[in-house]
Specification:
Length: 402
């Protein structure tokens, strides 16, 4: 169940409005438009919710379950692989439930009141498991593009605070486990992070509350950063534009008519340190330009004028209006049918999807290898180990004994 669209301080946007407090009110000028990716994620959430609800929350006969599932399958965004990923999610929730010494309380799609920490804020917990001294908050993420971590994750931490408030009269957990279950992202599908109840409450009181009060009233300074990617004002935000056009330090040689004391002309070549700096800025500039182009195209198509720019028809490709009829006409003209098709094997990923991961591994897993990838440049914060052109000790040993 998605959060109401008119929330000023939604938990899902906490990372943004906590870092850039005026953005919460600035976003009000822009419609909250959806996307196919969002619709796909909402559907996957609904399937996951149905499965967990049937097993732990709401006794449900097979007929009732199938009726609800078949209704979800009629959604145009439905893909069969959603069943596999949500089955994995159900397996994980089951393991969490079974880890308690006695049957815990389980809630799905729980509405959480977060107004104690952020004015008029609320959220929806995908799965809350509570028993003994442990509160477990599980968030199902279906997206694959942005890998999400639970560590110091404001959205998930707010959900934890909301769950503590919701069950504070009945339970007294001393620690909270926050989990991101993201089955389609690169790396481990399950990521957990543990925090004490007291530390979580202190964070909510001393960090969230002041930022939320400023954000709700539109106060504070605009602060561009990685959180801009989901801001509705990201394309035309002046602060973001300023951050992405401030490259005066790299304009090359500058020789003033009268040198100030201690000033020196810039060398004709960038230093390696400057190269690293420009590349880092370039990541954000590339994202910003993409957002700006998307905004400008939409504006022009809606009758606005963007000086110096216009919308034109892009390149087109020839295609058949009805490929089946075209092929029938070609065959009727005496062309051998074998000339109309080419036989080629499915890719590994496509074959794994068709057979199912478990069956694929049983049949062909022994033939799957993962050769080294080509070197690629990434920010230093990337968790992958550095690439080395030097052979490893194991490779040297194989050469020596081969």
């Amino acid at each position: 169940m998605p959060e109401r669209k008119h929330a000023i301080l939604p938990a899902s946007g906490a990372a943004r409005w906590m870092a850039c407090t005026p953005s919460a009110r600035l976003e009000e000028q822009f419609p909250d438009t959806g996307s196919d990716y969002a619709a796909e994620g909402t559907l996957a959430h609904s399937i996951a919710e149905l499965k967990v609800r049937k097993k732990f929350v709401e006794p449900m006969g097979l007929r009732k379950f199938n009726t609800r599932m078949n209704k979800l399958k009629k959604d145009p965004h439905y893909q069969e692989e959603m069943q596999r990923y949500t089955d994995d999610y159900l397996d994980y929730v089951s393991k969490v439930v079974m880890s308690y010494s006695s049957a815990p309380h389980v809630a799905v799609e729980l509405k959480l009141d977060l107004s104690r920490y952020a004015p008029e804020s609320f959220g929806t917990g995908d799965c809350i498991v509570l028993g003994g001294d442990t509160l477990h908050v599980i968030d199902f993420k279906y997206g694959r593009g942005v890998v999400v971590s639970p560590e110091n994750n404001p959205q998930l931490m707010l959900y934890g605070l909301g769950a503590l408030d919701a069950y504070g009269m009945l339970y007294n957990p001393t620690h909270v486990i926050l989990t991101i279950f993201q089955p389609r992202a690169e790396g481990d599908a399950v990521k957990e992070w543990k925090i004490s109840r007291d530390n979580l409450i202190n964070w909510g009181t001393n960090t969230v509350r002041p930022a939320a009060e400023a954000a709700f009233t539109g106060k504070g300074k605009f602060k561009p950063g990685d959180w801009c990617r989901f801001c509705r004002a990201r394309a035309t935000c002046r602060a973001r534009a300023g951050a992405n056009t401030a490259l005066e330090d790299f304009k090359g040689i500058h020789v003033p008519s009268k040198k100030a004391a201690g000033s020196f002309p810039k060398p004709p070549l960038l230093t390696d340190a400057e190269v690293g700096d420009v590349l880092q800025r370039g990541i954000d500039i590339e994202k910003w330009l993409s957002d700006l182009k998307e905004y400008a195209l939409s504006a022009v198509l809606n009758g606005k004028e963007i000086p110096g720019w216009k919308a034109v028809e892009g390149r087109s490709r020839r295609t058949f209006d009805d490929i089946e009829k075209a092929f029938n006409d070609i065959k009727a003209a005496g062309v051998d049918e074998a000339m109309l098709y080419e036989r080629k094997p499915l890719t590994l990923a496509a074959l794994e999807k068709a057979l199912g991961k478990k069956k694929f591994l049983e049949i062909a897993g022994a033939h799957v290898v993962t050769p080294p990838g080509k070197p690629t440049l990434v920010p230093e914060s990337d968790k992958r180990p550095p690439y080395s052109l030097k052979p490893t000790a194991e490779e040297d040993f194989k050469k020596a004994t081969g």
